[in-house]
Write a structure and sequence with these properties.
Helix content: 40-55%
Structural class: alpha+beta
Radius of gyration: 61 Å
Shape: rod-shaped
Number of helices: 8
Low-confidence stretches: 16-68, 74-81, 90-94, 147-157, 159-163
Length: 480
């Protein structure tokens, strides 16, 4: 017992001053403190460590008995904690960039420094342990000298003694493996970066093709913009030209009216319908236009007085056009063809003869029911038929032109289809007139006006050199 107490006292005397000196010595520099903090932050929690180099304190204390009430032995030990060697995997083929590469290099350098510091501390602790183990062995040898082992027997060295130097802790090996893994990954990334850069650069033909495609798109955009600009300019020019032509025609008409008044004195007609429209020359710009349009009609009668001066065909005494149909209602005699009535571009030939250069009263009547129609000359019915645009309704909001055939709404006249002569008493009814009513109009015994379109001086405009003059239907007929 006395020998054991002496050994304990010897151990306490040798260990306690070293622990006190170690705990009271200040840090050598701020850099070592920073490195320790960085290493502690990188390592996992202490509860997952591998233990001390020589096992827990209880294991070492079990090497010999302790006296009751004696202070616990002091040990200088270093707890090593394994560092996971697994590195975060890249999220994709293009996720590793220069910034991540820089961060990995910095982490690798920090790990190297931490490993070196840990290794240095472990070496110092190993030296301290060796020293303490030697002292303990000497104390035990001095106390146990009388109880020497039998000859030929030799005690096996214990781990951690001078005969069995301690092995390198696993934490150091794991840190070194993690550093090597990071270095390998950094080298692989550095090798892959040039390859990716080379793979992402397009070839020269591809660059040339892309540049050519971009240039073509730019040229197409410029061309389209130029076309749109030219179209706008053309529309503006056409609008200005049409307005100028309309103003000139109005001025010309007013001058012609004034000249007619000076030549013939005051007008010889007082009723608003006692006038005629004269178109002296066959062209595509002389005509008259009714200011009023037609409503939707399911039947009609159109009557007028006319006197043709054409050498061949009669031309077009009147035409009615709508936006969706240029030939909604047309009375036309063109070239050697007979006089025709067109409704919705459907044709019926009229057996009328109007080429004797005399005044004639004509009427055409039509109903949508079975497409029935009839034609009158000087009060007598000359022809009739059916199936002309059956069940078709005359469209509203069109344009009525006297003397020209319309190829579009209100325009595109053809000089070969123009009327040459005089027109008067143009009227439109929304039903088929009875034969007696038509005869009365032709004999001048009735002054029946159209209930849709009336012949009125204020309702007729003349253009291009066409003029208005006095007209009394029956007196002109007698003169003829």
């Amino acid at each position: 017992m006395l020998a054991f107490l002496g050994a304990i006292i010897c151990i306490i005397a040798s260990v306690h001053p070293a622990g006190t000196a170690a705990s009271s010595s200040p840090p050598s520099s701020s850099s070592s403190s920073d490195n320790d903090s960085a290493a502690a932050a990188l390592l996992p929690p202490a509860d997952k460590g591998l233990g001390a180099l020589h096992g827990p304190a209880e294991a070492l204390a079990s090497a010999g008995p302790r006296l009751p009430g004696s202070p616990p032995p002091l040990f200088s030990r270093f707890v090593c904690t394994p560092l996971s060697a697994e590195c975060p995997a890249a999220t994709g083929p293009g996720s590793t960039g220069p910034e991540e590469l820089l961060a990995l290099r910095s982490a690798a350098a920090q790990l190297r420094r931490t490993a070196l510091e840990q290794k240095e501390r472990i070496r110092m602790d190993q030296e301290t342990i060796r020293e303490l183990t030697g002292k303990l062995s000497r104390c035990e040898g001095g106390l146990r000298a009388p109880q020497a082992p039998a000859a030929g027997l030799r005690a096996a060295p214990k781990p951690g003694t001078m005969g069995h130097p301690p092995a390198e802790p696993p934490a150091v090996r794991e840190l070194e493996e993690a550093v090597r893994a990071l270095q390998d990954r950094i080298e692989r990334i550095e090798q892959e970066l040039p390859a990716r850069a080379n793979g992402s650069v397009p070839t020269a033909p591809a660059l040339a093709r892309d540049a050519l495609h971009t240039k073509m798109e730019q040229l197409e955009e410029q061309l389209l913009s130029k076309i749109l600009t030219l179209q706008k300019e053309r529309q503006a020019a056409n609008s200005d030209r049409s307005q100028q032509q309309h103003d000139i025609e109005k001025e010309l008409n007013s001058l012609q009216s004034r000249v007619a008044e000076l030549e013939h004195g005051s007008p010889g007609y007082s009723p608003p319908d006692a006038f005629k429209v004269t178109i002296p020359v066959q062209n595509n710009y002389m005509y008259a236009r009714m200011k009023k349009s037609l409503p939707e009609l399911y039947a009609f009668t159109i009557c007028m007085w006319l006197k043709s001066k054409a050498l061949a065909g009669l031309g077009t005494p009147f035409s009615y056009s709508v936006p969706s149909q240029a030939n909604e209602i047309v009375l036309l005699e063109w070239g050697t063809n007979p006089l025709e009535l067109l409704i919705n571009d459907k044709v019926a030939q009229l057996p009328l003869s109007l080429k004797d250069k005399a005044w004639h009263h004509i009427c055409v009547a039509w109903t949508t029911r079975d497409g029935k129609w009839s034609a009158y000359q000087d009060g007598e019915q000359r022809g009739a038929g059916e199936n002309l645009a059956s069940w078709h309704a005359i469209k509203p909001q069109g344009v009525i032109i006297l003397g020209q055939e319309q190829d579009t709404l209100g325009g595109r006249f053809d000089a070969t289809q123009a009327f040459v002569g005089e027109l008067a008493q143009f009227g439109v009814w929304d039903h088929m007139l009875a034969p007696a009513e038509i005869l009365a109009l032709a004999n001048c015994t009735s002054r029946l006006q159209g209930n849709v379109i009336q012949w009125d001086d204020q309702a007729v405009e003349v253009f291009g050199g066409a003029s208005k003059g006095a007209f009394t239907a029956c007196e002109e007929g007698r003169k003829a």
